[in-house]
Amino acid sequence: MTPTEIPSPQFHEAKPINLLTVPETDPLSVYRYRDGIYAADMLTTALVHLDLFSWLNSRPASKEEILVHFQLHLRPTDVMLTLLRAMGYLELLDNRWSVTRLAEEHLTAGSPWNLSHYYASLKDRPVTLDLLRVLRTGKPANWGSYKAEGDWHKAMENPGFAESFTAAMDCRGVYLGAALAKHLQLYHFQSLLDVGGGSGIYSCSLVSHHPHITATVLEKKPVDQIASKAIAKRGYQGQVNVLALDMFQSAWPTGYDLHLLSNVLHDWDEPEVNDLVRRSYNALLPGGMIIIHDAFINADKSGSLSVASYSVILMHSTEGKCYSTTEYESFLAKAGFEEITYKSTVADRGVMTARKPH
Question: What is the pLDDT of residues 274-293, one digit of tens each?
Answer without folding.
Answer: 999 999 999 999 999 999 99
